[in-house]
# Entry
Amino acid sequence: MRKPRRLFLGIGVVAVVAGFGTYAFVLHLRIKSSETHRTFEVHYVWDSGVKSLRIVNTEKGGEESDPNLRAKVAAVAESQLPRIVGSAGLTRAVGRFYADTWGQDVLYLPRFGTATDPDLARDPAVTPLMSALDRYDGVKARQLIAAGANVNASDQHGWTALMTAAMNGDVATVQALLAAGAEVNARNKDGETALSPAAFLGRTAAVRELALHGADVNAASKQGITPLMEAAQHSLPVIKFLIANGAEVNATDALGETALIMAARAGNEDIVKTLIKARANVNAKDAEGRTALSSAHQLGYTGISQLLKRAGGHD
# Structure
């Protein structure tokens, strides 16, 4: 009957080991709790790499002087900033994050804040005028314009103040920007002009203002998407205005899609009617051979399918 004795002996050994492990863990916590916990506010400048760091000891309220701690916090910055800046879609950035230490060791990753933290990674090319429009503060934006703000500055994505004002549907600011010399056909990195976001969001008054000041109603993005296509899903007033002002109804994007195919796929019967009346090619095919009718039929849009068939459309 040796097995039970061995079993009891094994259980006893495990208990002793477990107890020692618990004691060691508690002792470790007590030692750590006796060390100084520091939080650092780290301000950085990034341009394809760390260009400068300002490491502030939040308890002291001033720059950290300990070279060892500075080196460890800097190492955290070097390892984490590529991800932070990259996730913001930037190559150049300024911002702030927090790092925590115990004693001389950096034991915790920086507390970067929430995904919407405006101080985490900012585009240094963004001007106060752009920032005001990002906050939908048209009054402040117009004050800055009147004070001589650069109306043609662009951020790293090529967005100008006019693009944002048009996207917001802020006609008063669009007018002020244009009067101050904003380039109406300036393009962002995607090849879009201010007319594209305005058309997509159905900002009819802004679209009209831009067109009256010379906006190209057929300006296509790098993907070949025109303002008419942007509006094809849901903005009938913009569609009617663009067609009346020379928009090409049979233009195709990089995937071979037309505004009619997009409208049919979106299930917008009124826009489909308007495009057919404007002589849109009902049998145009995209790069995969789909027509407006086949798209509508596949998605179960019976009314649109009937409209297209009456106009001579086929699958």
In short: Confidence is low (pLDDT under 50) at residues 1-27, 29-34. The longest strand covers residues 37-47. The chain is about 45% helix and 10% strand.
